[in-house]
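Hi,

I'm pasting everything inline rather than attaching a file, because the server keeps stripping attachments. The sequence lines come first, and each chain or strand is labelled.
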Amino acid sequence: MRRAGEGRRLPPRRRPDRRLVSAMMLFFFSAFFLIALKGELRWQGFALALVVPALIYVATMGLPRFFPADKLLLAIANFLCALGVLVLYSTDLDAGTSRGLQQAVYYSTGIVAMLFCILLVRYVRRWKFLIRLVVLGAAALLALPLAIGTEQNGAINWINLGGTSLQPSEIVKIALLLILSYYMSRRQFWAWLLFAGYCLGVLMLQKDLGTALIYYTTTLLLFFSSTGNLPLTGLGLVGGAGAAVLGYRMFAHVKKRVAVWQNPWMYYETSGYQIAQILMAIASGGLFGVGLGLGAPRVIPVYFTDCIFAVICEQFGIIFGVLVLVMYVILILRGTSIAVSARHSFHALLAMGATLMLGVQTFVIIGGVLKLIPLTGVTMPFVSYGGTSLVSCMGLIGLLQGVASINQDDFAYDYEISHSLSEELTLPNAEG
Amino acid sequence: MKQLRSRFRVMTLLVVGLLFVAGLYGVYSVTIYGSRWFSNSKNTRYQAARRTVIAGDIIDRNGVVLATTDADGERVYQSAIKARKATVHLIGDRDGNVANGVDSFQANYLLGFETSLSERVAALLKGETRRGDDVTLTADSKLCAKIVSAFDTNAQTKGKSGGAVVMNYRTGEILALVSLPVFDPQNITQADQENPQHPFWNRALQSTLAPGSTFKIITAASALENLEGITSHLFLCTGATQVMDQTIRDYNLAQHGSLTLEKAFTVSCNNAFAQCALILTDANLRRTAENFGFNDNFLFRDIVVENSVYPTTNRNAVEIAWSGVGQSQIGATPLHMCMVGAAIANDGVMMEPRLIARVKSPSGTVRVRYVPKEYRRAVPTGIADVLQSYMQNVVASGTGSAARVTGLTIAGKTGSAEASVNGEDVTNAWFVGYIADDALPYACCVLVESGGSGGGVAAPIAATIFKYLKDNYGD
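And the predicted assembly:
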């Protein structure tokens, strides 16, 4: 008996991931090529037009050959990284800076960091000893700026190591997630609480309130995810709110932040300048933007890190800005799906923690730039200029990919077992 | 594990929901406030655009070119110095000292940001420098100059700060919008910069001051709307009304005896209106004020104006009594008070103030044309009719007699509002009025800061305005 359609030739197999990646590579190639024609930094632009698509290709098509990966997640993370390079390069024009090129170097470092984290999650089976090392290492690293740190924008959270500066609190994010999910999955309440409390204390001492907010929120959300303990979560929430109110009462600059958030124009000459410039930039972009490489993004203070979303909105328009938000949403949804498919609670919590951390950080900075909440100085994941930030975000993606690869191995194993079982079971029947 | 997964989903929903709110808020605020943020005088972007685009002309309703771009790309304002100075707050200046003048608030037209792609390509092919759109205003620059000279020629108002607005109460078109002191945009001097009267400040749109007795229009409207039989109620004015620990007195310590609402409106009796506010209760008075646009976020298309305030906190009997006569913490701009008078004249309907008659592209296509738009209904028609007769009485036989013009029926309300400037008590003179004639449907508001009595100082300037309208706009 012939089954329907058996005789017809099947159409060639579609590879949606390949198309998506090709589109991304074409987008970035043409974008870099076009601004390279315009500016004076030609060779940089032409180099980036080749290097960035190549990096995208390596990260999204090359890596998955060695182990199973979530390609959509990879594609989105890489798109955002490349977008950062593009926007930074476009602001370099006529400014004499070379942040775009620098960011491309950071991007490749980020890919290496992602690979490292994938391998870490995929191949380390005995965490018991390693996690103690991580605790000690992370604790020491986080406290380092207090001893040898330098101050930037009021916070002491940078250290200089042999010519390169480093923000330990970014790297420790990965350690925090490993530690939280390890101890939470083993229900060792005090172990993780002590570490998280230590981190928050040190960050407060460094006056790095933005990062402290992200550490705190991620820990609280992950705690609720792991236990479902509403009373304790509520207590944590009340404690956080109490600390916020206390901070508002005690620190004049926190008060000022809130006042500026309510009416930036009133404080234009002083502390409202940044938000006002952000709003003017976004408004100048309108729905469809002024165009790549155009506009005046450099009037916004720290346009290359915290406020880079305003630059994106000015050049590409608010609609594109919303689409970038949608990409983060897809990233979060993929991350959740990885967490939900994990077999071990350690892996599940690790994936969920990485997802929540990225989501919270995205909301804190984009909500701040759009004046929905007071602006807090944190970086926009993947896009903002900065090596440590990019490395830590790609590290988080690495954690997610590591868990995803284990999930897929597990699925494949299950499939094999069930397949061989069914073969065993059906064989006698077939013979008979 | 199963519970863990469902909690994961809840957490994700929470974070995704927050991002969704952020995106929605972003799109909402760009749509609502985008043009205001963009045209802010602090925005360096359109100043940069001036270098590459020839800014379009600004023309008044009679075809007078108020601002143009010369051969060197420099912005120049009209050569008649009096009118140039009088329209400086309306138009703005090159350096962005005046906030939200037409030159900056309409920059998206004037600098060709609304130019379509095909028009840009056409200009590129012809090798021409791109030119912005021309904006024609509803304003009359001669009338603006007339108002400034009226301020200057009168000894009582010479050198005083103030503002005046003239609008068509049927359509909302603004004919004049003046703020004093004025300055010359072609030649901004050190004295202008250091003048303690802040000439760059646009008082007609940015000063929210206590409207004083002109607010009695709203108190009376509220009484007519909420209190049955109030027209026959008799108030007693002994010259002083004790409310808690404060005494409310009349301007010049007048005593009016027993009087009706109509009479109290005509002679502007504070005692009667303070008592009236207390009978009305704060909630009723506030509702009426909000119907007139107080506490609303004004987002008019052509004009940026400060929001008016009817206070919502610290409402004890003293504050409520003072609210009845437009004091307390009530604040309104001359433009808004002009709209209040115009709403009464227009049978209770408040029109949106409009300043742009049309926007024309260099190739001659009309991009925007003036369309009258209703802003809100302030009071029912019946009550507006009663108030019209009250306001006519004010000019015919009350405090506003100085606004009379022979051959015209004028209606109005005076105000002498107490304010404090640098700790010194001053009286701001207000007059809100209109011509009760369908052929000349114009309302005006005049404010003279530290001027003294509204009837004595502000009303004569209104009379000059009405006379000008009669001579130039009548048949």
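The longest helix of chain B spans residues 2-38.

If the labels don't parse on your end, tell me and I'll reformat.
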